[in-house]
Automatic annotation (TrEMBL):
Keywords assigned by UniProt, alphabetized: Activator, Cytoplasm, DNA-binding, Phosphoprotein, Transcription, Transcription regulation, Two-component regulatory system
Occurrences of domain Response regulatory (ranges): 8-125
Modified residues (4-aspartylphosphate): 59
Protein name: Transcriptional regulatory protein
Domain of life: Bacteria
Subcellular location: Cytoplasm
Amino acid sequence: MPEPRDITVLIVDDDPVVTAALHAQVNRVLGFRVVGIAHTGQAALAAATRFAPRLILLDLHLPDMPGLEVAHRLRRPEQPPADVIVISGRKESATVRAAMQRGALYYLVKPTRAGTLEQTLLRYAATAEQFESGGRFSEQQEIDRIFRSLHLDQAAVRPKSISAATEQAVLDALGEVEEDASAHELAAVIGVSRATARRYLEHLAERGLVEGRPRYGPTGRPQHRYRVR
């Protein structure tokens, strides 16, 4: 059964083979659920009204109207609010810019590998979670972190001092704990120093994949605890 807090997704593409592949890929990502598929622009607008998806994966080549026109109409007040990620074979700078101007959060070029789509969806989920509280941001850095976590790909945000293998090991170890863990606890599990574990945890927190919170004890400095978002 789907979780009630799943991010609902509408897939818009005129190619049934593509929509079937995207449907399978999206439903494999934890926390996402496809609620509709549309093969034309008009069908996309109708499905957006009917299902009110949180996220729309939008192709720009549709048989009845340009995908950019669909993106524009999705911004109208009578349409339920939805975020748009474009998935298109078009690579012209003018097209990418036009998609951004019409509200697209991100632009993926076809053919899109399953891993690339998964990472994009996970970054989107981490970003969306930060808006759910409905509060206000106290620092510019908090807003900067949101934009970085959504728009920078995995390779771009990983400094040279961060190993992909160790990064994944930290994520895997943290994902296996019931609640949260400290850098010291994770260091013992994966066999690195406490300083190394802390550096990786802070890096993952910057990417929006890990959440860190201080825990205050009876005395002394607070201990930072981390959990997977």
